[in-house]
Amino acid sequence: MRVLVTGAAGFIGAALCEALLARGDRVIGIDCLDPYYDVALKRARCDRLVKSGGNRFASLPLDFADMAALRHALEGLDFDRIVHLGAQAGVRYSIENPHAYVHSNLVGHVNLMEIARHREVEHMVYASSSSVYGGNAKLPFAVEDRADHPVSLYAATKKADELMSETYAHLYRIPLTGLRFFTVYGPWGRPDMMMWKFTANILAGKPIPVFNHGDMYRDFTYIDDIIAGVIACLDHPPADDGQEKAGGSVKPHALYNIGNHRSEPLMKVIGLLEEACGAKAQLEMLPMQPGDVHKTYADIAAIQRDLGYEPTTSIEQGVPKFVDWYREYHRL
Q: Of residues 154, 168, 256, 326, which has the active-site annotation?
């Protein structure tokens, strides 16, 4: 299979590319190496892909929200399916820089759907987010639940992507699958996320910011489990058969949660990090941040039923794996 992957230098994107290459697929990776976080980390991920994929991996350094540049770069390149993971990430940063989210997450998403439409691709999988559930009090979050009260602009852009995808599936019958990811962590993760920040500060003897005074719960999902779910979705396009899909569409458009189906207390995770780091954390207790939600918890019944998805990595296993990788990467 020939797969176009956006966000190929990102955390999930690079892990997906590596898995696709490992099974023999050809991959075209797009990433503009945005400096939202350390570009050296993104380059290191790309270097691994070049080494593992050889001539089966092609890297295109461009901004997919620039339609002219995107079309030009893809001229003469063939691909069967698309996994659109590239986006401006981060809930809190969307409050500081909203235009970056409109540019990448809205304009960029339409551009990729236009490419999918005109190239008549077999399937496009795209990244949504658990943040679309906003402040929903019903737990666990199910894809059938209403998700029209986002509490951050980032979440609003991801919900908008789902709505635009439904329109394209209706108008052009493009098979589309949206994935609502739940707090992904693991080796080669993102420096702006909690697991990385807390590990860095604990090992450096610095305080860690604990929001809502520690009363937070997240469905932490290990990267290997996420990738297994993405590939299962990629290999099974929703049928254009008029039957209702996960998420409620009767078009060739499905929506799935990908999580660990466990809502873990933040303080428990801090304890596991302390144990893996061999040091006590200095806790800086803070109020809830704007745009944050109290709890996330994935109902994964739909993806279990349709694709046999079963996460296998608990946080008791995953947290030490991340800390081990972090030490090795930073030579600590």
A: 154
Task: For the chain, give every domain's residue range.
Answer: 2-185+220-261+297-312
Crossing angle (nearest 10°) for helices 153-172 and 108-119: 20
Extract the tokens encoding 82: 């698309």
* pLDDT tens digits for range 50-80: 999 999 999 999 999 999 999 999 999 999 9
Q: What is the CA angle 5-261-89, rounded to 5? A: 40
Total-model pTM: 0.96
Report whether pLDDT(235) > 90: yes
Residue 331 Rama label (left phi>0; alpha psi -120 to 50; beta): left
CATH architecture of 2-185+220-261+297-312: 3-Layer(aba) Sandwich (3.40)
Tell me 251's DSSP state.
S
d(CA 293, CA 151): 8
Question: Closest Cα partner for 180 from 28, 296, 266, 292?
Answer: 296
Q: Which residues touch 127 (CB under 8 Å, ≥6 apart)?
A: 7, 12, 84, 85, 87, 158, 178, 179, 181
CB 311 within 8 A of CB 219: no
Asked whether 162 and 170 are in contact (CB, 8 A), the reply is: no
Among the listed residues 22, 30, 25, the one whose alpha carbon sits nearest the alpha carbon of residue 6: 30
Residue 18's SS3 state is helix
Strands, E, within 150-220: which ranges?
A: 176-181, 184-185, 207-210, 217-218
Q: Distance (Å, rounded) from C-alpha 242 to C-alpha 239?
A: 8
Helix (H) or strand (E) holding 286: none
Helix axes of 266-277 and 194-204: crossing angle, nearest 10 degrees:
40
**Amino acid at the residue 294:** H
| 154 given a catalytic annotation | yes
